[in-house]
Amino acid sequence: MRRKLTLVLTIALVVVCGFAGWTWFRPYEWQPDPGAHFVIHEAWLTRDHSYIWLDLELKPSGGPATATAPLAAPDLSRPIVLVTGAGRILDPADTTLTSETGQGTSGVVLRYWLEPADLDQTLALKINDGTLHVKTTPGSPDLGADGKRFFLSNRW
After folding, report:
1. What is the per-residue pLDDT across 28-50, written as a single tens digit (0 to 9) for each?
2. Is residue 34 part of a domain?
3. For the CA atoms of 141, 143, 148, 150, what is the dihedral angle to 10 degrees?
4. Fewer CB within 10 Å, N side or C side of the chain?
5. 94 - beta bridge partners?
6. Domain extent for 142
């Protein structure tokens, strides 16, 4: 009896650790558009009265060395925009360059001011020559009592 219990608990521990590892290391988007030159690292929503802030942390798809390449000489004919499922085009309200200690610029955080109806649809980020899928499922996510929620995948 004791050996069976030990075996069952060991198998359960392996399954739980495997799921935790898969959740932690999976990418935000499985096949990001290479034309974007960036990948979404994480996204988070913050309620602000009746509107919602969407923050997107982007990392260069080629690593930190290419982080400033698409941003150094922006092509104003191709702005970075968020497109809702209804076709509404939103410009970022704020853009912040991020850096890791001693490595210079390692990414960028884009901030968008959304209406609650915008979250009922899919969201896509058009950047450079590509499109990144921010949100792929219909329906508005629950922000909970504190009004904040983090996403590590585009299925929200």
Report:
1. 888 888 888 899 999 999 999 88
2. yes
3. -30
4. N
5. 111
6. 30-151
